Amino acid sequence: MIPFLQIMMLITFLISGIVKVFGFKDFMKTIEGLKVHKRLILPAASSVVLLELTVPVLLFISKTQRFSYYLIVILLICFAWSIYQAYTLQLRVSCNCFGNINPELFGWNTVLRVTLLLSVTFYLLISDTTTQWIEYPPEDLLYAIVGSLGVLLIYTLLPYALFGAFMSKKNE
């Protein structure tokens, strides 16, 4: 179970980081839309992307897996702040969670996603288990990757299944 969750987190942050690299200007617009001071937009956007691309590397190395969980918590705190900022200032800002792959505004969808990621991260932290990927059977690794991609697809679509009709009416 732990290796599957680690691979799921690895793929989630890898895809999110890569998509943000290719849509970096849009991601900077999201941060600007959250009323972040102009001087901090580029460093904030760069830091998030850098962390999102660092986490998968650290998750792959057994000695740094625990540290990667702490970085994920930091990222999720930043994402939670973004949700809070958008909500309290009543901003209609694109979430840019997965870049332009999944365009949506900050709302209950993002709250659900951050909560799910935070739950998985705390579970991984509490389990205090590391995975030696070099010794991991290749077929199990392949199953974990394919399964993780399926979970990521569900993770992306689940909020629409739960809140879809409600959110589309509210966002109009």
Task: Provide the domain count.
Answer: 1
The SS-based structural class is mainly alpha
Would you identify the regions where 5 or more consecutive residues have pLDDT less than 50? 165-172
The number of distinct helices, counting runs of at least 4 residues, comes to 6
User: Total strand count, please?
Assistant: 0
| Beta-strand fraction estimate | under 5%
The major beta sheet can be summarized as: none
Q: Which shape, going by the Cα principal axes?
A: globular
Q: What radius of gyration results from the CA coordinates?
A: 16 Å
Distance between the termini: 40 Å
Helix fraction, binned, reads over 70%
Instruction: Let me know the average pLDDT.
Output: 84
Order of helices and strands: HHHHHH
Membrane topology: Multi-pass membrane protein
Subcellular location: Membrane
Transmembrane segments: 6-28, 40-61, 67-84, 105-126, 141-163
Main location: membrane
List strands and helices in order, with pairings:
Blueprint: H1 2-22, H2 24-33, H3 38-60, H4 65-88, H5 108-127, H6 138-171
Helix pairs in contact: 1-2, 1-3, 1-5, 1-6, 2-3, 3-4, 4-5, 5-6
